[in-house]
Design brief:
The protein is of the alpha+beta class and 122 residues long. The protein is 34% helix and 13% strand. α1 crosses α4.
Length: 122
């Protein structure tokens, strides 16, 4: 699994960089959890409950997963255990607000929430 911004699709990369910059400007240090994934890595993400779809936009370089550093530090380096995330933490809402203002889709709006997920909308 990649954390490299260079693994993002050229259409999405500048938006992801801008989202990170604005999030940091709002005082929220973030970790990049995931950018690109192979099909095998996506299958593992589904098997471990970190994803719920067979084909992810991560496989196309059109998604990024971010995590506030405090949450990442508290709950681990394995993608930050999503079961421990506090959905009412204002940091998640700011991540979503900034992403959506840039025209991105935020996983925090989904029935099965993915609070740190931002993806390109085609």
């Amino acid at each position: 699994m990649s954390r490299a911004l260079n693994d993002l699709d050229p259409r999405f990369r500048p938006l992801a960089v801008e989202a990170i910059a604005q999030i940091v400007e709002h005082g929220i240090a973030v970790m990049i959890i995931s950018t690109g994934r192979t099909a095998a890595e996506q299958a593992i993400a589904v098997a471990t409950g970190h994803s719920w779809v067979k084909h992810s936009k991560h496989q196309d370089g059109l998604a990024i997963d971010l995590c506030p550093f405090e949450t990442y530090h508290l709950h681990g380096a394995d993608g930050a255990d999503k079961l421990q995330w506090k959905e009412d933490d204002p940091a998640w809402q700011m991540i979503g607000k900034i992403g959506e203002a840039l025209g991105l889709r935020w996983g925090g709006r989904w029935a099965q929430k993915d609070l740190g997920h931002l993806e390109y909308v085609e």
